[in-house]
Design goal:
Rossmann fold; single chain; 4-stranded antiparallel β-sheet; 10 helices; 6-stranded mixed β-sheet; alpha/beta; binds adenosine-5'-triphosphate; globular; about 230 residues; binds magnesium ion
């Protein structure tokens, strides 16, 4: 579904990614782990052409999307749940969802389904998003990604700052996406939570992939996990 092949990415003249390659199959959940500043967010931003990719290739759903306009990449069916959530603060929950609606060749998710996933949201539908808690905002951000009918969802630290119940809901959504054959690329600071829902895992450091393998191998091998991700 997604193939990132040997990309070198920059912010201005500063190189941040050095030959990163990542593949995500249809219906696969892939975790991307690594310390602060490793380049995880930049990898997601590179997929969306929000960082400058100077060499290498990115394809999605059989199509070359390298350096395509961001709105066209989104329209092809890539959903994004950014680390800062990016909802429209002065618009209501309902309007935030309505304007995220998009048709792609992938499964469409309705507002009703989002309210079934995040039951708290239904009662907040007329509330302006600036008056939501962090966890409620995250529910809106994830719902916006679903309503855009994605074939792949990029999650950037979705459980950061959330109560255990909301973290549980987020992990449940990721499992549900997998059941529906939607692909997921999951950046997480919480390696144990990420490994629990992932099929495969990549670890990056200083702009490079330093390990990739089956998530089950890291779940089993405490010493390897300790060395790679410190827990
Ligand atoms: N807009 C920017 N301009 C210049 N440098 C940037 C910019 N954004 C990030 N960087 C730098 O790029 C490197 C990778 O940052 P990135 O945000 O991708 O890391 P990360 O792995 O997501 O870290 P974290 O876990 O802290 O979110 C860091 O050295 C960071 O300082
Ligand atoms: Mg980041």
């Amino acid at each position: 579904m997604l193939s990132i092949s040997d990309i070198h990415a920059f912010y201005g003249e500063t190189q941040v990614l050095f030959g990163v390659s990542i593949d995500v199959a249809q219906g696969e959940v892939v975790a991307l782990l690594g310390p602060n500043g490793a380049g995880k967010t930049t990898t997601l931003r590179s997929i969306l052409n929000l960082a400058s990719v100077r060499s290498g290739r990115i394809s999605f759903d059989g199509r070359n999307i390298t350096q395509q306009p961001t709105h066209e990449i989104a329209r092809a069916g890539i959903g994004w749940v950014p680390d800062d959530r990016r909802v429209f603060p002065t618009l209501t929950v309902e309007t935030n969802l309505a304007i995220a609606k998009k048709r792609t060749r992938f499964r469409a998710w309705s507002e009703r389904e989002c309210f079934e996933i995040f039951t708290a949201l239904e009662y907040l539908r007329w509330r302006e998003c600036e008056n939501l808690s962090g966890g409620e905002m995250q529910m809106v951000a994830i719902s916006r990604a679903l309503i855009g009918s994605p074939g792949l969802v990029l999650f950037d630290e979705p459980s950061q700052g959330l109560a255990p119940k909301v973290v549980h809901d987020v992990l449940r959504v990721i499992r549900r996406l997998k059941d529906e054959r939607v692909s997921v690329l999951l950046v997480e600071q919480n390696p144990l939570a990420a490994l629990g829902v992932s099929d495969r895992v990549y670890v990056m450091d200083k702009g490079r992939i330093v390990y990739h393998g089956e998530a089950a191998a890291l779940r089993r091998d405490g010493a390897l996990r300790q060395r790679l991700v410190g827990v």
